Amino acid sequence: MPHALSAEGEVPSFVGEKLYVNDGLLRPDQVGALRESSPDMPIEEIRRRYNEDGYVFLKGLLPREDVLRARQAYFEMLAPSGVLKPQTAPVDGIFDPANDKADYPGIGAGAADGNGKPGGSTAEKFVDLALAAHYADWYKETFCKHPVLKNMIARLTGWGDNTLGIRRSLLRNNTPGNKAIGVHYDQIFLRHGEPTSVTAWVPMGDVAVTGGGLIYLENGHTLGQEVEADFTRKAMESGLTTEESKNAFNQNMLSTGLLADGPLEYADTFGRRWLVTSYNAGDVVLHSPYAIHASTINYDPNNIIRVGTDLRFVNGSRPWDKRWDKDYEFNDGV
Ligand SMILES: O=C(O)CCC(=O)C(=O)O
Ligand SMILES: [Fe+2]
């Protein structure tokens, strides 16, 4: 049976919703559901799923109120930039539709060169405040060091007291309609360490399925390993030094360090689906350093700004990428 066409003549991507990525509208055959897990499952089962899928999506791991408290602090800080719709509560994070989205570009995905300062001079107030939020106590000392998260990772990995939350993190804001992060796996940016880090992707607020959440390539962690082996081979063949080959932006790679800007074409090239979901405040996805992921463009029906952070954990008793032992800054070369 042919799929019903929507009013615009385009087929919804998933559960009746249209999911847009940097290179267009995902087709239904390119999309599946992210597998949900419960933090109350036996840790062996959580570990089994993490190893099998390259990620584990833990519903309600963090107390919802802790996440919303951070969301509120974030938007109270950013409100003077005019980002929020007048007469709305900061915790709701509703973008003022009267704004030009170009003046409110996203941290982490908004700059053409990946990790540079996004936007022009009219974006400066917003961008400067969004950067300053990285250094605020409620973020750096409280949210990033949440004991429930660290404890889960210590149990998952068996690292125990050696579990170390690394300092550099990106507190990302995806304003409606702006560019989304392209296709990548995290080890590309962590090559000075062993490929055993765990990333916790933490949505800071509820994220509708069309609201710009993270998407994972099905079995992407096995493909990521193959791609990394290929980069290593190319680096050797082209005579790069070990140091050069560890660079995420070396001559064999895109200038952004990404595998591709466009998830749609990438899914077709490798014949794999993107796994998607909606998120609630408190949910966390733990993913392996080879898990291939990207995000959708935020087209939330209520103009809710998507905020999220990626917190990384390593075994502090093993070699890890110490370039990350610093707070995030634009153009920090990592
Ligand atoms: O939040 C995003 O858009 C990207 C996050 C990410 O790449 C990660 O958590 O590793
Ligand atoms: Fe990532």
TrEMBL record:
Matching Pfam families: PhyH (PF05721)
Signal peptide: none
Domain of life: Eukaryota
SUPFAM superfamilies per UniProt: Clavaminate synthase-like
Lineage, broadest ranks: Eukaryota, Fungi, Dikarya, Ascomycota, Pezizomycotina
Stored InterPro entries: Phytyl_CoA_dOase-like
Descriptive protein name: Phytanoyl-CoA hydroxylase
Classification via Gene3D superfamilies: q2cbj1_9rhob like domain
